[in-house]
Amino acid sequence: KRTGLPNANFSLIHDFLKYMFDLPMLIRKAGGDYILPKVSFGGVAAGLSEAEWQEQWKYHEGAVWFDARPRVPYGTLEVRPACSQKQGENIYVAALALGLVNNLKEGARLFVNAFAWPEWRELRDRIVKRGFDAETSKWQANVSQMVNDILAAAEYGLRERGLGETPGQEAATP
Asked: Residues of the chain with pLDDT > 70: what percent?
């Protein structure tokens, strides 16, 4: 699977790298041509020098579109849902992600404790397919409190940055 939420929760970077290593490559650059390798990244990388496989990694990891993913060439975390909000409102999802990254320990705890990974996938799929009409009563008791807790954790993360990114907060002066 290349989109949405991955099949498993990557609790360690090793888990993520193994997943990516075993995932078939969609495109590879060979000389001046682009080819369809039809094998896993590991199969391609096995015959390459370190510099060559690092170059191929850019094509491989760029063709996996999880809702959030590390972008190795840029040293960033890409949050894809932030790119799909209506114009003028995409800053909210980006600020939520930034606040959670800056309060990562608490944000991760909230997500991990809220639901098991298969439940997260089911909840996400229902909401993506049906929007606000999705049947979520199975999770309703937890969702409202979880949303409030996640927003509080993100706000705390933004406040800790000291850049005036939350309502009523002035930017810290150097």
From this structure: 85
Angle made by CA atoms 120, 123, 129, in degrees to the nearest 5: 135
Q: Which residues contact 174 (CB under 8 A, 6 or more apart)?
A: none
**Using one digit for the tens of pLDDT, what is the confidence trace for 32-79?**
899 998 899 999 999 899 999 888 998 898 888 888 888 877 888 888
**Pick from 112, 172, 117: nearest CA to 146:** 112
3-state secondary structure the chain: CCEECCCCCCCCHHHHHHHHHHCECCCEEECCEEECCCCEHHHHHCCCCHHHHHHHHHHHHCCCEECEEEECCCCEEEEHHHHHCCCCCHHHHHHHHHHHHHCHHHHHHHHHHHCCHHHHHHHHHHHHHHHHHCCCCCCHHHHHHHHHHHHHHHHHHHHHHCECCCCCCCECCC
105-141 pLDDT, tens digit each: 998 888 777 778 888 888 888 877 777 666 666 666 5
